[in-house]
Amino acid sequence: MKIHFGFSHMRAMLFTYLEFKLMNIKKSVVALALGLGVVAGANAATYDLGTVTAPSTYSQVVGVAVGSFSDQWIFDIPTTLFSGGSVSNLNISIQNIGDLYNISGLSVQLYDNTNTLLVNLDGNAGSSANYKVGSGVFTPANDYYFTVSGTGTGSLGGQYVFAVSTLPVPEPESYAMLLAGLGIIGAAARRRAAR
């Protein structure tokens, strides 16, 4: 038995098939749009470093999605210490393709536990559009925090490196012993010169 389809029947089958494919494409486009909406929206992350002691070193590479972001780096200081650190944009670009990872408008600020701005690293000597640096003495307090913000403009977003090193601050007794030692060395040198 042979079945013959007429032209109108073939056309109806073709339209049904195309309609089915079009519905699948619409669903894919909607899913893509929703996905891009999530990626392109504002991003925020909080990183809790816990209690920071001296000496210690901490660094981490952080990836951000396409669009604006504002990350917080929270930490506690139990004793007075000296700290130096930096935040660097990791721009990765491929010739004829463009930026895969880049952050424009990179900005870094340090706040204390009362949300008072202590330092804007954007204006520090040595800072640039892609590199923010700072150093100083931290006194014991709870919840200092850095805010790192900008806009991921690469096709895959952006990446930055957050890096901090700490050193202990000598106690006054240490300075007294240092000065006493220098005094003894000076007296010994003077005595030798007198001979």
Describe this structure in words.
A hairpin with a 3-residue loop joins strand 5 (92-94) and strand 6. A five-stranded mixed beta sheet has the order 1-3-10-7-8, with no helix packed on it. The chain is built from two helices and eleven strands; from the N terminus they run H-E-E-E-E-E-E-E-E-E-E-E-H. Helix content is 29%, strand content 44%. The protein has two domains: 1-34; 46-170, Jelly Rolls (Sandwich). It is of the alpha+beta class and 195 residues long.
Span between termini = 130 Å
Number of helical stretches of at least 4 residues: 2
Strand pairing plus helix content: what structural class?
alpha+beta
- Placed side by side, the strands forming the largest sheet appear as 1-3-10-7-8
Biggest sheet record: 5 strands, mixed
Query: What is the CATH topology classification name of the largest domain?
Result: Jelly Rolls
Order of helices and strands: HEEEEEEEEEEEH
Spans of at least 5 consecutive residues whose pLDDT stays below 50 are: 1-5, 25-41
Question: What is the top-level CATH class of the largest domain?
Answer: Mainly Beta
**Average pLDDT number:** 81
Using the 3D structure, state the CATH architecture of the largest domain.
Sandwich
Shape: elongated
Give the radius of gyration: 30 Å
Number of domains: 2
Number of strands: 11
Fraction of helical residues? 25-40%
Percentage of residues in DSSP E strands: 35-45%
